[in-house]
Amino acid sequence: xxxxxxxxxxxxxxxxxxxxxxxxxxxxxxxxxxxxxxxxxxxxxxxxxxxxxxxxxxxxxxxxxxxxxxxxxxxxxxxxxxxxxxxxxxxxxxxxxxxxxxxxxxxxxxxxxxxxxxxxxxxxxxxxxxxxxxxxxxxxxxxxxxxxxxxxxxxxxxxxxxxxxxxxxxxxxxxxxxxxxxxxxxxxxxxxxxxxxxxxxxxxxxxxxxxxxxxxxxxxxxxxxxxxxxxxxxxxxxxxxxxxxxxxxxxxxxxxxxxxxxxxxxxxxxxxxxxxxxxxxxxxxxxxxxxxxxxxxxxxxxxxxxxxxxxxxxx
Length: 315
Prior knowledge:
single chain, elongated, 2 domains, 7-stranded mixed sheet, alpha/beta
């Protein structure tokens, strides 16, 4: 890879800079190059005036090849530098670095769509055929939070303040399946929203096909069994009873503890996936960008990169 401000010595360094192994990077590059051409041709079709010179003429930019452009946007997502630092590393001015991020993020998203790794925004159960009517779709439902800068407006400060994390955050519902993939990432909302309230806003209890879905959730979804009776089955841990005068030493029965362990052994599969997403620093450190929908787009694109690493195809 030429004209980069880094000397990449080995695979470990390449993964540290981009978040992807070289082999997967090359796979993504093929679709990224096609997406670049699609975006360019779409832009040309929208032109009202004819070209004054042939396409490709004129001064060449610093990011002149698809490889450099893909490396640039992956480096930004993985390490999340400021635009001053990003521009200094790649030989760009800070405004030009920001402009390139805004242009290349939709291209990366389009490439992930072509590879069928980009998650859906809402959960649509797979309706089984008559031959597979006894099979169930197994999913794990969880929510993930990430920090954001403290808003200036007092009302926004209240909306984004998470009492659970004691800071201002953004939140998304994440639905994973047992095949180590993330088929659904819900819309980004202020961190004050409760996990279960968020799910109720995103998933209709009368959604067709829920009768073939088996779900695992944590204690943040208390009441889901009564609110979503259409599910084939819901696995939620037993909650420890409250301490009271009549029950001064509340505890779970051995059978309940056994059932909780069994649920945790299945539900824990979502944690490495969320951890994989947060290995990209743009989802781990305080989110600074103020561009409309930027916070929502990056979590979707990063989840798609994690699906790509795990060879998971979104149905």
